[in-house]
Amino acid sequence: MESQNVTRVSAFLLLGLSEDPELQPLLFGLFLTMYLVTVFGNLLIMLAVGSDSRLHTPMYFFLSNLSLTDISFISTTVPKMLVNIQTQSKSITYAGCLTQVSFYAFLGCMDSLLLTAMAYDRFVAICHPLHYTVIMNPRLCGLLILISIFVSFLESQMHILMLSLLTFCMNLEISHFFCDPPQLINIACSDTSTSTILLYCIGAFFGGVPVSGILCSYIRIISSILKVPSSEGKYKAFSTCGSHLSVVCLFYGTGIGVYLSSAVLSPSKKGTVATVVYTVVTPMLNPFIYSLRNRDIKKALQKLLGRTT
Known about the structure:
By secondary structure, the chain is mostly helical. The protein contains 10 helices and 3 strands, in the order βααβαααβααααα.
């Protein structure tokens, strides 16, 4: 089979979640609903935090940034999928594919680093409550956001550099609804051993460091909570971490599952389902997790919706 250099590739074909024509309207309706719920729910969180002065604290500052990142994250993949279903076209240009990979890697890393910053915020609030306002000052919060943006940009550029060196043959079909880096490596006809190793090294470093930071924070948090004499005090202290811990488990559990399965298994429906949970379901559930488990967010939402009504 005659190969061609990646620079001459004009487009890829996104096969989506299913090629069955009868399932396309169902998939369109389902993903459109999930997308709208995600955007609306995260916008409500951002508006609630911005409109209530009681929520102008570091924890809710990071939460509003997480909501903005989640809206952007799901907007990287789902709208293109909806357009392809509606127009009955599966193509995505080479430049569009690399752009999608760039934003996907950038925003996924931003999500991870924001969750790490939120874990550090909870650590300071519980383990050093008397120094909380001094340590978590606006300057540090802004610096953490800037560092997250810089590190995320660095990771996205590493993905682009790695993929731009690949060579593709005539098979340009991606068994997914977006340009997932492991899938692109799978369809390359050049030697991909170096790219595969580099991909998982990038994932291990840019994913492992935040996970380690979150684990260290929660080890210290749990240690401090266990020293609280009253059971009511323990519950109150741990309840402030419940929402964040739920999102962390959902985000990293599905994310790690996706990349570990792609490392040892060929592309499968199980891996696709896990990716859908990671890229679509998690951003959609974040607002519900925080609003249902957080009394301050509930009050702010009631106040905001009451004012609107």
